[in-house]
Hints:
22% helix, 22 strands, eight-stranded mixed barrel, single chain
Amino acid sequence: MKGFFISVLNGLKTKLGASALSHTIAGVAGSKVAIASALVITTSVVAVGGTVAAITVNNQARKTKASTSEVAAEMDSKDLLNVVLPYSTDDADTTFNDEVFVSKEEINDEAILDMIQDTSQPVKIISYEDLEIVEDDSTNNQPVGEVVEQTASNSTNIYETSGIVKGIDVSKWQGDINWSQVAASGVKFAIIKCAGRSTSDEGGLYEDSKFEKNIQGAIANGIQVGVYFFSQALTVEEAFEEASMTVQLISKYQITYPVAFDWESASGYRVSGKLGRQQLTDICNTFASVVSSYGYTPMIYFNRNDWRNAVNTSELTSKYKTWLATYFSDYYYTSTAWDYGNSVPEYPDIPYDIWQYGVTDTVPGINGWCDMDIAFFSYGNYQVQGMQDPYISLRTENFSLYEGCDINGNSLPANNDGGDYAAYLRENATGKNCIGYDANLSMVITNSSGNEVDYWTAIHSPGRYTVTYSFVDPRNGYITKAATLVVTTKPTEPETTTESPSETESEGQSETGSESGSTDVETTSSEDGSTESGSTEANSTEAGSTEGTSTEGNTSG
């Protein structure tokens, strides 16, 4: 069956082009890896872009679906890919305006189930601002997949492996990942946790703290990405919230692999033992339908037991891609990874597309344990869109400040009051990484000796400082750029002396002929008894200068 399916896909790809093929897969019998008997893979894998080439499009898919089917026969698959795949830039393909949102007060389970009947256009969702997002309180629990014994294969079916690729799924628990090393190791796809719901009774929504870094790192290094939401939904309404959150979180990214609904139950989880088959099936349908309406390929994740006992299996596997968690003991917390030629599970009642086969420490670039996957499908002609050289741009390269002053020359408090006086330095730089996203810049100030100092110390110690901006590009490593900060001693203002009125008056009274005004009078008596007055000199004033003259007069006795 598998060999027949690949032959059919080869023919379809030649006739229809890659994108048209993605709409045909669902209608082909045996389209899933329905492994009726164990299959042994004996040939080596072909890189992504090989035989099984179905393109999963992002948000733009809905807009281009009709036109794509018309031009598919006239375009090769590479050109077609450029039509339907978005660019990885900060401008998301989907603009979430008010028309696409619905208030939480307007919805309930019945209304939502009615809304998702039509996915030919985007289902209205809850605005991100209206969702109650909390801090991530998730715990690093062991995965819920069952550990089973590997069985020998008796199959005689040998099939091509061009659609069989190795992958991983990751979250914050893998820490800081070196995606360049991951890509070099042969990992072709990564399913990245974007968010989840708490397992506690409160069930708060949270973002995975490493989502942005992980998805940008994977994309920048040529690894195809999908995402998953860790669900603890107890109602259709909660699943609707989770889907609303997911499509808004991932809207600006180049998603090729599916968007997965990862619902898990274990002792102590809020969902444990609380849902019937149809309830959980409706919850899965809700998430998948909303995701599908935004152009993504939905996928449902369960372990073997839940696929068989918790949901209406055939209802979900017939409509959506299936992710099965079942672990062979050889790969369960070991240093052994599955390889081409090894056996895979044989469950005729669970046709699956991706197999989460174990937890190993075998992935270069990841320090510790990681969930391991193989997918029985791949996407051809994958190219990272929007690749560019990373950069940091500075508004100003040189700053000069007076000691103890802000950027405007105003004196700062004598003691550090916690004010954000370095804001102008941080806002001086912006950056973009290699796939066009805003960089999260760090800033370090060093003195002339190369020692790191804080801003408060720098502006109170005259000298020349280097302000270095940097970020870690997911493909190129550290990107840096520097500005100069010169702190100089503030000039001393000349002292001015002002005499007080009391001192002036005192001096005027005690000194004869002072500048406050003096009168020199010379009086002589003439022989005839007349009096002769001497000359009088007056001070010069701002109102005008008056000079006294000699006056002679006769006075009768």
